[in-house]
Design brief:
By secondary structure, this protein is of the alpha/beta class. It folds into three domains: 62 residues, no CATH class; 37 residues; 210 residues, Rossmann fold (3-Layer(aba) Sandwich), CATH 3.40.50.360. Helix 4 crosses helix 6. The longest helix is centred in the first third of the chain and has 37 residues. The termini are far apart.
Length: 328
């Protein structure tokens, strides 16, 4: 290869590729006088510094020519990968949009910002503020109940757990609050719901789904569920046996039971609040009546959770369900 100078009086550079060159960029350089053809400079590739050889090799590696035909083929296929990345990005965005639109039509839900729930003024005015002491007391009661033998089972595997479920007695007039959690958010909201019910004069029991039998749903008249979703629309790991029996099982007769579900999730995932949605649909399939629509919560769940708690409490107060005068 010969390179002519940009000026008329400049030297002529000749690039020579020797037969034993490792790649096409491994060239020796010969500089000649433009007028006399006298050799001004001779730079053989073999005598080049290690740094220069490395720079030349990186250039050949970038184009794929440093590795011959195989390298060029790999480089060409890699360049086409950029087109596939653009396509897969559009495909993932469309898939997420499609799932979110489909999930929105699966079951009845409610926009917590567009409606207000009327709660009896007398109850709200007379009810004391929920403090940390009442929360701790409710949590201690829940932990003591969960540690009792009638509410637990040997969790040696999903099949063994389902086989070992036996009927457990519950007060039918009590509001049963079941939670399934990974990080503890569902548990804290269940305790908060129970504290609000107790201050309003209702009897409430809080249970972890991981330590409950599915037949507990038949031994109460009112069930509230607070459940989170993680991963690819999966239930919390410890809750899986209970979820499997309720969502995919048969034989539960919940015709005299009313329920409401608070679902926790994250909109960055395809299956937003899938576990809560499945519980909501399954309870209705078993004959239960949804007395307050399901509310789906994103990562910032304080406002929708508060709306759900107030809505459930208001609905129960209007029905005067199992309430006793506050303070008794």
């Amino acid at each position: 290869m010969m390179r002519l100078p940009p000026r008329d009086d400049g030297p002529v550079r000749v690039l020579i590729q020797e037969p034993q060159a490792p790649h096409i960029f491994a060239r020796s350089q010969l500089v000649l006088s433009r007028f006399t053809a006298e050799i001004i400079k001779w730079e053989p590739y073999a005598a080049a510094s290690l740094g220069r050889k490395l720079r030349i090799w990186v250039r050949g590696l970038h184009t794929g020519e440093a590795l011959g035909f195989a390298g060029q083929t790999v480089a060409g296929l890699a360049s086409l990968g950029g087109c596939f990345l653009v396509w897969t990005g559009f495909a993932m965005a469309w898939r997420r949009f499609r799932y979110r639109k489909r999930d929105a039509d699966d079951a009845t839900t409610v926009e917590y910002v567009s409606a207000q729930v009327e709660i009896k003024p007398a109850v709200i005015q007379s009810a004391p503020q929920i403090n940390e002491t009442s929360k701790e007391r409710a949590k201690i009661e829940m932990e003591q109940a969960n540690s009792s033998a009638i509410n637990g089972y040997s969790h040696n595997g999903h099949e063994d757990a389902r086989a070992g479920w036996n009927a457990a007695p519950y007060d039918g007039d009590s509001v049963l609050i079941l939670y399934g959690t990974v990080t503890g958010n569902a548990e804290s909201l269940a305790i908060k719901m129970a504290a609000s019910l107790r201050h309003a004069g209702f009897t409430a029991r809080v249970r972890d789904m991981a330590h409950c039998q599915p037949h507990v749903l038949t031994q109460t008249n009112c069930v509230l569920m607070v459940v989170s979703t993680y991963g690819d629309g999966e239930p919390p790991e410890d809750t899986a046996p209970f979820w499997e029996a309720v969502v995919h099982g048969n034989g539960l007769n919940l015709r005299d039971v009313k329920f409401s579900v608070l679902a926790l999730g994250n909109t960055t995932f395809d299956h937003f609040c899938k576990c809560g949605r499945e519980f909501d649909v399954a309870l209705e399939r078993h004959g239960a009546t949804r007395f307050f629509p399901r509310v789906d919560c994103d990562v910032d769940f304080d406002a929708p959770a508060k709306y759900w708690i107030e809505g459930v409490l208001g609905s129960l107060q209007r029905e005067n369900y199992g309430a006793t005068p506050a303070g008794i």
